[in-house]
Amino acid sequence: MYEIKIEFKKYIVDLGRILRMDIHPVMLNLASESLLSQVFAKGQCLVVNNRGAYSEFRMNRFARIAEFGYHKSKMQAGFIERFPQTF
Could you say which of 27, 41, 45, 58 is the most buried, measured as most Cβ atoms within 10 Å of its Cβ? Predict the structure, then answer.
């Protein structure tokens, strides 16, 4: 297990060096809606094993992101109402 972590870190460092960018690996299956929206907007997938499953996954996650946007705006509006403007 420890050797796998070392190999993984080595690949991430080497890949970052080759691309001259910071690499932030994310398991999209476990990511929250806010992180997924950032990844889909600004990120790039490096490995896609099954294009059909990936496009179906994106379609489902975009629906969840859109639904989450409504709840996020309601939460933000509630926080703004509760805290008085002191600035």
Answer: 58
| CA 47/CA 12 separation, integer angstroms | 13
- Give the residue extent of every domain in the chain: 2-82
**What is the per-residue pLDDT across 55-70, written as a single tens digit (0 to 9) for each?**
998 898 888 888 877 7
**Nearest Cα to 31, choosing from 60, 51, 55?**
60
Contacts of 44 (CB under 8 A, 6+ apart): none
d(CA 64, CA 28): 13
Find how far residue 48's CA is from the centre of its chain.
Answer: 16
Residue 15: how many CB atoms within 10 A of its CB? 13
Model pTM score: 0.55
35-54: per-residue pLDDT in tens? 888 888 888 777 788 999 88
